[in-house]
Amino acid sequence: MKTISKIGILLLLASLAAVAQQSRVYREGGGWVEEITGSLPAARSLRVSAQLGSVQVQGGPQQAVNYVVRKRAYTSSEQEARREFEQYRITASEHGDMAVLEGQHQGGRARRFSVDFSLQVPQSLEATKVETDGGSVSVNDIAGRVDASSGGGSLKLDRVGGDVIGNTGGGSIDVGSAGGNLNLQTGGGGIHVASAKGKITAQTGGGSVVVLDGLQGAFLETGGGSIQVKRCQGQVKASTGGGSIDLGQINGPAEVDTGGGSIRLALASGPVRAESGGGSIELMNLSQGARAETGGGGITAQFVATRGGFSSSELETPAGDITVYLAPNLPVTIHAAVDMGNGHKIASDFPQIKVVSEGGDYGPKRITAEGSLNGGGPVLKVHTSSGDIVFLRSTSK
């Protein structure tokens, strides 16, 4: 029994030593700081929960979880500051293979008080979860998945090997590189993604969305900001309540819509659907078909598809010009019309496209064009109520 008791005491002491903390209080600027330092043994996962304050997690070669917590109270006396510090408790513990660090305010609303957490952790962590009610969150160099949330602060996540979940009530989200899927959501801030090997899902209530490189598709939505995708290897779906959409190289299908902004696409290897409430639409280097519609702007489309790649397409605007670039060897059947042809025209580089004008010079005139290129093929419908239509020979491919 004595031996068992001694072992129990030794284990208890070892446990206490493992989570032992050191604290010091000092003056800084116009306030006081309580700095708490501590360490937890090697862990496979980490959870940080802060009732308020910012959190920074940095992965590295060390095995232990080392942390520094700085509480700041902007009071006139050290005694008053210490009372403020006592209201915010820091708890470090172990739950199986998980290291847990928590900060909780015991009193009422904290005033003239702030806190920040800084952690040095093993880069090999399989899972990291960080949550704070209002401060910013930064997580870098973690091999596994990361789940970060804030009540309203910004999120900055970089060099994450696994999946990433990021959620903030209103701050911005910035992801450097991630090896898995991204699921990002903010109530109103901007979202920026440099590189992701997995699928990207990003939603903001009103900020802009920027994706530089995605390898498995992107699903992007904003209540009113702009959307930009430089390159994506899979399907892209982008929707905004009123901002512009600018897509670069899309190696897959694309579905984009905006309540009133412009749409620009540099290249797509899959079918494209583009809708705008009133902005212009420019779709270039289309390897397959496209359906584009705008409530008032012009449309430019370039079809570089070859036999077997092109599918039925439609371009329509009530008040704007439509310019169509066609590959010389593209098998396609053309149906084009201008409803109010007075002062407008249909022009073509292709003699196979026949233009017909109906109506007189002093009355409503409708202009139509029909023709089959390279023996005909899927139908391309081009329609504007008031504007010019031009078919040009494309020099690409």
Present the secondary structure layout:
Layout: H1 2-18, E1 21-28, E2 31-40, E3 45-50, E4 54-60, E5 65-73, H2 78-86, E6 88-95, E7 98-105, E8 113-122, E9 127-132, E10 137-142, E11 145-150, E12 155-160, E13 164-168, E14 173-178, E15 182-186, E16 191-196, E17 200-204, E18 209-211, E19 218-222, E20 227-232, E21 236-240, E22 245-250, E23 254-258, E24 263-268, E25 272-276, E26 281-286, E27 290-294, E28 299-303, E29 313-319, E30 322-326, E31 332-338, E32 346-348, E33 354-358, E34 366-373, E35 379-386, E36 389-393
Parallel strand pairs: 3-7, 3-9, 4-8, 4-10, 9-11, 10-12, 11-13, 12-14, 13-15, 14-16, 15-17, 16-18, 17-19, 18-20, 19-21, 20-22, 21-23, 22-24, 23-25, 24-26, 25-27, 26-28, 27-29, 28-30, 29-35, 30-36, 31-35, 32-36
Antiparallel strand pairs: 1-2, 2-5, 5-8, 6-7, 31-34, 33-34
What does this structure look like?
The chain has a domain at 20-125. Mean pLDDT is 91; it is low at 1-18. It is mainly beta. It is built from 2 helices and 36 strands. It has an 18-stranded mixed β-sheet.
List keywords for this structure.
36 strands, disordered N terminus, mainly beta, single chain, 18-stranded mixed sheet, 397 residues
